[in-house]
Amino acid sequence: MPWASSNPHSHRFTYVKGQFCRNPDNEPRTWCYTTDPEVRYEFCNVTACETTNSTCYENSRERPYSGTINITVTGYPCQRWDSQSPNRHTFTDVSEENYCRTPDGAVVPWCYSTNPTKRWEECQIVPCEKSATVYGCYEGWEDYGGNCYKIEKNMSTWREADSACKKMDSELTSILTGEEQQFILGIMSADLCFNTRKLSDCKKWADQGDCVKDPLFMIQYCRQSCDHEVFCNTDCAMDAHENSAQCGRWQTSGECARNPLWMLSHCAYSCQVCSNGNIN
């Protein structure tokens, strides 16, 4: 039954989201309350995490992490264990490249970082009980590579964003590969109508007429605040016109500045709203 429900079984875990098998009281296995009034709860048939080459770690010192993740929680590449640069250490017998490990018996995998000012950090690895490969993602989150992603389109500092993620029991991620970037852009392109500058700034610029006076700027940063369909329906990573070469010629001749709204509707890419296909 849904965790937020108390029918047919009253319980104290109503804060748990969804209707998935969970382990809010640290039982040996995941479980859930059933919809049968005669059977209060049962353990779930969930495959245990594999620690070798996995994207999660067992919350146990008896089963240390042995996968190949080598990035710290704030995005630094790990230093090789057989290297003393830039950070000297005594764990030279750990010979597995620069993979996250627990040579000191810790539970959470860690490594020395390649940043001379950041000696070591825990790694970008979630506990197996939170891994998407075991449980799937909450509604509104997208699965990629065994992890769950959610795009928040509010302007904030790194510290503010990190704090917001932790409140959702998650981590602020760093994009590490081209494939991951394309996945993120795919999520973003499904909803083109958002601002990437502060809402108050976008509203001020829209009120003073910048959606018409400077649409090239506004479509990059304040789409949601401009009351014109071109701002929310234009995919800036491509030219909608059937002849992209012609769009390039119009751009060269200055049409993006002379006739911006039409050009944004038909030749957004050539007007350099985007750079190398990435959303700015």
UniProtKB/TrEMBL annotation:
<dbReference type="GO" id="GO:0004175">
    <property type="term" value="F:endopeptidase activity"/>
</dbReference>
<feature type="domain" description="Kringle">
    <location>
        <begin position="65"/>
        <end position="128"/>
    </location>
</feature>
<dbReference type="Pfam" id="PF01549">
    <property type="entry name" value="ShK"/>
</dbReference>
<dbReference type="InterPro" id="IPR003582">
    <property type="entry name" value="ShKT_dom"/>
</dbReference>
<dbReference type="GO" id="GO:0005615">
    <property type="term" value="C:extracellular space"/>
</dbReference>
<dbReference type="InterPro" id="IPR001304">
    <property type="entry name" value="C-type_lectin-like"/>
</dbReference>
<dbReference type="Pfam" id="PF00051">
    <property type="entry name" value="Kringle"/>
</dbReference>
<feature type="disulfide bond">
    <location>
        <begin position="21"/>
        <end position="44"/>
    </location>
</feature>
<feature type="disulfide bond">
    <location>
        <begin position="100"/>
        <end position="123"/>
    </location>
</feature>
<dbReference type="InterPro" id="IPR016187">
    <property type="entry name" value="CTDL_fold"/>
</dbReference>
<dbReference type="InterPro" id="IPR018056">
    <property type="entry name" value="Kringle_CS"/>
</dbReference>
<dbReference type="InterPro" id="IPR016186">
    <property type="entry name" value="C-type_lectin-like/link_sf"/>
</dbReference>
<feature type="domain" description="C-type lectin">
    <location>
        <begin position="144"/>
        <end position="251"/>
    </location>
</feature>
<dbReference type="InterPro" id="IPR050759">
    <property type="entry name" value="Serine_protease_kringle"/>
</dbReference>
<protein>
    <recommendedName>
        <fullName>Plasminogen</fullName>
    </recommendedName>
</protein>
<dbReference type="GO" id="GO:0005102">
    <property type="term" value="F:signaling receptor binding"/>
</dbReference>
<feature type="domain" description="ShKT">
    <location>
        <begin position="193"/>
        <end position="232"/>
    </location>
</feature>
<feature type="domain" description="Kringle">
    <location>
        <begin position="1"/>
        <end position="49"/>
    </location>
</feature>
<dbReference type="InterPro" id="IPR013806">
    <property type="entry name" value="Kringle-like"/>
</dbReference>
<dbReference type="InterPro" id="IPR038178">
    <property type="entry name" value="Kringle_sf"/>
</dbReference>
<keyword id="KW-1015">Disulfide bond</keyword>
<dbReference type="InterPro" id="IPR000001">
    <property type="entry name" value="Kringle"/>
</dbReference>
<keyword id="KW-0420">Kringle</keyword>
